[in-house]
Inverse folding.
């Protein structure tokens, strides 16, 4: 499962990409709800678990202009086939390679398109830290609306169009 939108390409995450993901994730961990430092061993354990979960789709993000270079990741997960909904998250863009380009927005829209068009979802939801203003702006621009908040976390959702 993969997709193109705007200036990005989303492709399945492979084991060859997980060390790059871990490195970027550890640099940007303050923006994640579970913001602990991830070891190489923990990343491999996570990847093995992810691959065993049929309702979890993790993607690498690359620019169309240079599709071989990993610039980030995004995911559609917790897929509920009965209710046609899933969670969006794990979005991260390597700021050393793509700062200020708005590629997080492109990756968000692309992942949602995959969810709606390829998985047949009716709704995609997410959680974001309330002080992550950049992510909030991206999600609002991508069509998400706030559905609630609690303890510094904002809940948002987006229906299929």
């Amino acid at each position: 499962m993969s997709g193109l939108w705007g200036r990005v390409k989303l492709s399945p995450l492979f084991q060859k990409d997980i060390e790059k993901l871990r490195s970027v994730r550890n640099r940007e961990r303050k923006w994640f709800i579970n913001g602990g430092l991830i070891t190489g061993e923990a990343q491999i354990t996570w990847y093995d678990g992810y691959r065993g979960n049929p309702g979890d789709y993790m993607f690498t993000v690359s620019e169309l202009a240079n599709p071989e270079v990993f610039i980030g990741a995004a995911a559609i997960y917790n897929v509920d086939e009965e209710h046609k909904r899933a969670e969006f998250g794990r979005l991260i863009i390597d700021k050393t390679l793509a700062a200020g380009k708005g590629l997080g927005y492109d990756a968000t829209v692309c992942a949602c398109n995959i969810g709606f068009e390829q998985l047949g979802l009716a709704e995609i939801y997410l959680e974001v830290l309330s002080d992550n203003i950049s992510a909030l702006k991206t999600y609002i621009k991508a069509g998400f609306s706030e559905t609630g908040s609690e303890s510094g976390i904002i809940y948002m959702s987006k229906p299929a169009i």
